[in-house]
């Protein structure tokens, strides 16, 4: 067993394992399912994608920056293509052989004097966790177990006496499940809109209940993926209010007024809730195939009463109400939980421990993998700093602890909702990671005078890299990347 | 041969500072991603037995295509046990030319190289010639898993202004034609060293294709650059008129290393007589680096 254990082989765990291994750490990955891919592993019991899921953000935002999605893939790839992409990523960078499949982390407890005692269990083919626990000791733990798997189910009065069926989107895998039903979809996240659209033509009736009025962004605007156009507006560098105004105006031009479709007027500015990107929903609302309705007041036997007094005779209610963040194998006191989410530096680094980090615990208003890549690079650099200059790393921890309130939201006042617990504005967050990387790199360079002093000439021949590696007890590969990237600080 | 001769143009300002680290924000790639290609030429030469060494990906320069590596280097490398692949950038060789051919920027070539990389089973070593050398510098910075890079007569990372006067004096018409996006039709002496067989030179010159205008312009204009973190070997030719020795030496200096110059060779280090010594140097160096890592 290596010195570093990554929990989860989804898009975040793979990026963490790849970048930590590249920085010279001995990485192992444990994965509960029989295949990698996490949420994108459709066959896995932990996957929450349904048969028709496509990415919400277009390829340039979705992909890892050093491993672009293939040209053959469309702008918005299907989940099976994303899964194939993750497999190729893991194979190409040699992560696959590091993964122990069908292995569940039952508990992880800190050892005295640092490091972790991890209890692992085998997951049998029928999905049960059992057998004897295997105990492993590792130096550090990287949590990448995902945050979109544990259903958040709302509770309305009379819900337990409802005569129809109640389903959470977590259990929605195929549109056939909606065949012939009178379906009420609750929630206007991207899943809720997807389910409502998938129900059209299959269900007898489709109602879509939302608590408030939202902005529905199109997937394409002016013939281009709309997120690419959005970033173009952002790169004008205007004040955020102006940017919002331009994007609102663009939405007005591209999709028109939501009122015309029969939807209520948004009660907040564009970007103040997590973006919903769905063009088909408006189309079907306009055709009367999806009936938008307000929030539920109560369940009544075989019907649902809404807050406006309307009664809906639905026999299948789909809760698209999102997921709660859960890290079941770690004592909550270890992760600085506040209001339903761990409070960490950039949602990655622990403010008190250097042997625990979380990767992928963000909900960007854009693609995930690219940001997760840079989270992993930052983690790898920080752990390198812990190796070469523990004192400087501890000083950084104090800085992290002092700055925990800093959320990368680009000056946008998000609507107060549990949906936005880990919401980040992708450009602001990317810049924050960039600043952190610059800082950590400078500290590493300062801690390695042998590499710094020699300046440019250090890389004049092939041999010096090896010399640098021998200079430092940190481990050859760690030193290699240090000397190479920042040795001249 | 005066390697350190100060260039006339661009002697005081050498373009934007080299950023030592790949940036997190890639706004151009996010807002204007390279158009996808349906046909991208990737030729391969495989050794008889699978090699434990990483594969090598060869990136050609302006006006060329994958063929320039198939002539000598690819068979020789495969014979020595290396798995080697060569790519044709978009609008070159057997690769598709997208619409707006003239407006292809170098950034799209980098996308082509990364696309080729993702089809390989393992992270490859990157070898680039001329403009391909510049592309390899950029790709190395972005793709940190590449074990090493070799630059043959590379275009300097920040700008090529310092070498323009050399090209201009040697072959002003070719320079003028290239800068407006036409076929450069260079004199044989511009492209090849004096030891090259004229018949060979004529045969190779006939295969040159015009380079898209925007990419050509970017080669000579100042541009931002990111420094690779991997070991890099820089090789130049003593009689090179397109990337003259002083330009190659500057590239090496800016990448923190020293250039290896082959006197008597021109720009085409993988085609001209002497290509074997260049290959010997590169492969020997790569073996050293791989053992060291």
Strands, helices and their partners?
The complex is a heterodimer of chains A (489) and B (293).
Chain A: E1 4-7, H1 11-22, E2 27-30, H2 59-62, H3 79-92, E3 99-100, E4 103-110, E5 116-123, E6 129-138, E7 140-143, E8 150-151, E9 165-168, E10 182-186, H4 190-199, E11 205-209, E12 216-217, E13 220-221, E14 224-225, H5 226-234, H6 240-254, H7 258-261, E15 276-277, H8 279-286, E16 291-293, E17 296-300, E18 303-306, E19 311-312, E20 316-319, E21 323-324, E22 337-338, E23 341-342, E24 356-358, E25 363-364, H9 369-388, H10 390-402, E26 423-424, H11 426-447, H12 449-453, H13 463-471, H14 476-486
Parallel strand pairs in A: 1-2, 1-7, 2-3, 7-24, 9-20, 10-11, 10-20, 11-16, 12-15, 25-26
Antiparallel strand pairs in A: 4-5, 5-6, 8-21, 13-14, 17-18, 18-19, 22-23
Helix pairs in contact in A: 1-9, 9-10, 9-11, 11-14, 13-14
Chain B: E1 18-19, H1 27-31, E2 42-45, E3 56-59, H2 67-70, H3 73-79, E4 84-87, H4 106-118, E5 125-129, H5 131-142, E6 149-152, H6 161-170, H7 172-179, H8 188-191, H9 198-206, H10 213-220, E7 225-226, E8 232-237, H11 245-254, E9 259-262, H12 275-292
Parallel strand pairs in B: 1-7, 3-4, 3-5, 5-6, 6-8, 8-9
Antiparallel strand pairs in B: 2-4
Helix pairs in contact in B: 4-5, 6-7
């Amino acid at each position: 067993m290596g010195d570093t254990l990554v929990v989860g082989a989804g898009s975040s765990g793979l990026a963490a394992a790849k970048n930590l291994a590249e920085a010279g750490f001995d990485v192992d990955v444990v994965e509960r399912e029989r295949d990698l891919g996490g949420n994108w592993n459709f066959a896995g019991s932990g996957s929450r994608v349904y048969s028709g899921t496509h990415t919400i953000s277009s390829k340039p935002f979705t992909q890892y920056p050093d491993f672009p999605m293939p040209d053959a893939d469309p702008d918005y790839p299907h989940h099976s293509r994303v899964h194939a992409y993750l497999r190729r990523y893991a194979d190409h960078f040699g992560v696959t052989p590091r993964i122990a499949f069908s292995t569940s982390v039952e508990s992880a407890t800190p050892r005295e004097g640092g490091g972790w005692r991890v209890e692992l269990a085998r997951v049998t083919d029928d999905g049960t966790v059992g057998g004897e626990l295997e105990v492993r000791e590792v130096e550090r733990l990287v949590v990448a177990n995902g945050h979109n798997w544990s259903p958040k189910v709302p509770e309305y009065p009379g819900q337990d006496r409802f005569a129809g069926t109640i389903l959470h989107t977590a259990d929605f895998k195929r549109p056939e499940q909606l065949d012939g039903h009178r379906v009420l979809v609750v929630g206007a996240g991207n899943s809720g809109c997807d389910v409502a659209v998938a129900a059209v033509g299959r269900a007898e009736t489709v109602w879509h209940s939302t608590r408030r009025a939202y902005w529905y962004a199109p997937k394409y605007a002016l013939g281009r993926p709309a997120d690419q156009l959005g970033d173009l507006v952002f790169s004008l560098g205007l004040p955020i209010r102006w940017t919002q105004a331009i994007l609102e105006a663009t939405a007005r031009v591209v999709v028109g007024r939501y009122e015309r479709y029969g939807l209520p007027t948004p009660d907040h500015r564009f970007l103040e809730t997590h973006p919903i990107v769905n063009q088909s929903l408006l189309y079907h609302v306009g055709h009367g195939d999806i009936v938008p309705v307000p929030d539920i007041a109560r369940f009544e036997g075989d019907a649902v009463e809404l807050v406006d007094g309307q009664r809906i005779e639905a026999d299948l209610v789909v809760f698209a109400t999102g997921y709660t963040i859960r890290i079941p194998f770690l004592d909550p006191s270890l992760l600085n939980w506040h209001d339903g989410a761990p409070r960490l530096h950039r949602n990655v680094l622990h403010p008190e421990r250097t042997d625990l980090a979380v990767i992928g615990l963000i909900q960007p208003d854009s693609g995930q993998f690219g940001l997760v890549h840079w989270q992993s690079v930052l983690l790898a650099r920080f752990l390198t700093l812990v190796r070469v200059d523990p004192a400087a790393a501890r000083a950084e921890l104090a800085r992290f602890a002092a700055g925990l309130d800093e959320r990368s939201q680009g000056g946008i006042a998000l609507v107060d909702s549990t949906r936005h617990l880990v919401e980040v504005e992708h450009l602001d967050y990317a810049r924050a990671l960039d600043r952190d990387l610059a800082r950590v790199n400078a500290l590493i360079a300062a801690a390695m005078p042998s590499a710094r002093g020699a300046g440019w000439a250090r890389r004049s021949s092939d041999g010096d890299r090896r010399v640098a590696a021998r200079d430092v007890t940190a481990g050859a590969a760690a030193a290699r990347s240090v000397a190479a990237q920042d040795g001249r600080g | 041969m005066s390697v350190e001769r100060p260039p006339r143009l661009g002697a005081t300002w050498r373009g934007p500072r080299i950023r030592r680290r790949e940036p997190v924000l890639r706004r151009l790639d996010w807002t204007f991603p390279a158009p996808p290609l349906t046909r991208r030429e990737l030729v391969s030469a495989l050794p008889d037995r699978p090699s434990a060494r990483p594969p090598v990906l060869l990136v050609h320069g302006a006006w060329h295509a994958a063929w320039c590596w198939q002539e000598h280097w690819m068979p020789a490398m495969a014979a020595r046990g290396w798995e080697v692949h060569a790519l044709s950038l978009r609008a070159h060789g057997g690769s598709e030319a997208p619409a707006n051919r003239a407006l292809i920027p170098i950034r799209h070539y980098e996308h082509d190289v990364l696309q080729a990389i993702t089809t390989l089973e393992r992270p490859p070593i990157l070898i680039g010639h001329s403009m391909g050398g510049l592309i390899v510098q950029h790709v190395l910075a972005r793709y940190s898993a590449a074990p090493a890079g070799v630059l043959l007569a590379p275009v300097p990372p920040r700008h090529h202004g310092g070498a323009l006067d050399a090209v201009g004096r040697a072959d002003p018409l070719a320079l003028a034609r290239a800068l407006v996006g036409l076929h450069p039709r260079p004199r044989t002496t511009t492209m090849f060293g004096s030891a090259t067989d004229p018949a060979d030179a004529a045969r190779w010159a006939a295969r040159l294709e015009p380079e898209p205008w925007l990419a050509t312009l970017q080669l000579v204009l100042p541009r931002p650059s990111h420094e690779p973190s991997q070991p890099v070997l820089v090789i130049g030719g003593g009689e090179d008129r397109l990337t003259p020795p002083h330009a190659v030496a500057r590239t090496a200096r800016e990448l923190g290393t020293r250039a290896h110059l082959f006197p008597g060779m021109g720009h085409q280090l993988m085609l001209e007589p002497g290509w074997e010594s260049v290959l010997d140097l590169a492969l020997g160096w790569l073996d050293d680096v791989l053992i060291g890592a």
